[in-house]
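Re-running the complex after MR caught last week's input typo. The corrected sequence lines follow. Everything else is unchanged.
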Amino acid sequence: MKKTCFLLILLILTSSSMGFAMGKMPNKKAIVLADFGTTYLSALKAITTIQNEVEKEFPGIEVRIAFTSNIIRNVWHKRRNDAIFMKEHGRDMKEFLNIKGPLATIADLQDEGYRTIIVQPCHIYSGEEYADLCSYVNGLNAIKTIKVKYMPFVKLVMGRPALGTYGPVHDYHKDMETAAKTLKVDVDLARKEHAALVYMGHGNEFYSTGIYAEFQQVMQRTYPDVKIFIGTVEGFPSLDDVVTALKQAKVKRVVLKPLMIVAGDHANNDMAGPDRDSWKNTIKRLGIQVIPIIHGLGENRAWARIYVQHIKDVAKDNDLIF
Amino acid sequence: MKRLCTFILLIILEIAIASGVLHALTIKDASGNTITVSPPYKRIISLYGAHTENLFALGLNKEIIGVSRHESYPLEAMEKPAFSYHDDAERFLAAHPDLVLVRPMITRGYPNLMEKLRRFGITVVSLQPRTAKEMFTYWRTLGVLTGREKAAEEMIQRFKGQVASIRKMVSHIPLGDRKRVYFESIHSRMKTFAPSSIAIFALETAGGINVATDARSTHGTNIADYGKERILSHAHDIDVLLAQRGAMNHVTKRRIYEEAGFEAIKAVKDHQVFIIDEMIVSRPTPRLILGITQIGRFLYPALFNNVTDLARNNTLTRANYAEMFVKMAAFPFEIPGYRRIQARKNKAQHLYGDFRDVDYNKIISAYIETAVERGLFQNIQARRFLPNKPILRRDIAYSLFVGLDLPGAGPCKMIDVPEDDPDTAHIAVVAGLGIMKLSEGRFFPDQTVTGLKAYHILKRALELARH
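Corrected-run output:
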């Protein structure tokens, strides 16, 4: 008995003194869905719809959500101290109560033995957030251990956003055509209302956001019988550009919808808010009737399937079986 | 009580210094410092928005040489150089102020800066009233410091007069019908206001009953801890849930409606949750009257949004119509925020507070600005609202189209509104829906309307509009 104890202690001591990566490292597979995030329970549907589609397609694969917004993660973490919130939602919201950023999510997975990971950004296009996420992943992939067998990841790769990205491997024109097809439901609504369809994208002032203008043309080609316009809150095309186009097209009525995954504050304030600068009121000033639709693209299952396909594509490109 | 005592008390120890023109006074400020002051001060830097607003309200302008960052009212304040307690003392010294107005939060947090300024002979006075009563003393103190005692007295009397007329209106509400209100100050931390605070004074003046009378002030401030359990212990008694929104509370109605546990609150069940701008309920300025009025409009819309008097006008003016629309549609007052004003500043647009023909001391100004902010009036020229000009039928059609979400209408031809008239599309919908009638195919776009006619038009439009 004494001898066994001694051996056990020796084993513990030796194993703990051997540094971070010894022994056979497991290689499980996981998918990380990176979202900006939301604090509204009613807006989570946009995020969970994508999650459900991904889980359905990849049964048995670990799927985790990461929120990139620090503020939003903090709000969720504070809710852990709210006894009433925990009583009501503690169980079903567990995933969000412990939500982490992409870096920590990937690190956790690695720690738990998931060394083949696909990070799928739930972004619209290849903009600032996508670039930052790429930078995170590239940073992790820069880790080179002395012995190959101790590399933290067997494969850590990233899928492309909904409207695609640069490079010849996946033609972004095709991505746009696919995305356009998923928006049929919005076009149908506009057609039923005898209205034009106006999308409000987020955009960015630090990047060329010309892709929105290009996507508008793709949408128009796909649905030639309904007038379609796309503008952005920040960047090009602006609301002024949309207004000019609406005037030229002599539109009388529009369906107005966010071209964003989640219908949050931008949709409620910038788009459909009561002040005179909101998209709704700016368009109404022209004598055009506006029907605002406050639903995020994530709620559209067909749109959610785009990300499923992009996960499959990146897996195939890297000879991964998912 | 101790807090009350530490609040500024003008100890009238007047010591004649020279020929009776200059007086030195000894005052005890809100931070407990006994200071000798020599008013009137002519080069003032204010490091708190409420001080700035009050100085302008006293009629000062050239005497104000610096203001705090992120000022939003009045507009003139935004043209002044901005100072901060984060700045070096040298930046202040270079501006040669003779008075720097601060508040206790600043003296506590930045004692070195205060000390340096004093060492260079600058008078630093810390002021922050905690109750309505202290607010009048505070206004008087500002009057004394700036030599505007008379203006301060007028400001107090005007405010008291406005309060008295609201109290008179509210006095007709039977006690049993009074709304019980929980007033949130910081949603994420479940804080309310201290019962003696200015915000609760506003609530009670508007006829509301504060349910959190047992709340204790946090560090002697207006804010009081409460906690979710205690709020929920009143769940069945809260008729209305009111929340201030501002820099320290970025709350939305959606957030409140979704708050775990809040579904048990009567106000949440009855959709009686309202948001009010902190600048009109938490700040000791004359705009507090707008906060009181707005709370009244939330609690007792039938009383506060009554338009009977307006409907009696033979020819309705633009100002009357703005008030009638905002009241009947129950649009809450729009209060200008720093960011919004900054975003519009370079666009040659109208900015809240810049109408030279509107008296901003009167409550009607809030109805006018709200109507303009909602986009109800077109072609607003810089600095002129034309409040006494009659409202025309075309203006009404335009405002209904922009201000309300009306359903679609079939085609409608009007003999006297040509295709190229800028208002054709708006008028066609409003006439097509029968909200405004045609007479033998004519709309009479440039005709004036009576108050009663406008009332009936608005009533029909509101019935048809989507909410």
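None of the earlier attempt is carried over here. Chain B has a mean pLDDT of 92. The CA atoms of residues 167 and 205 of chain B lie 6 Å apart.
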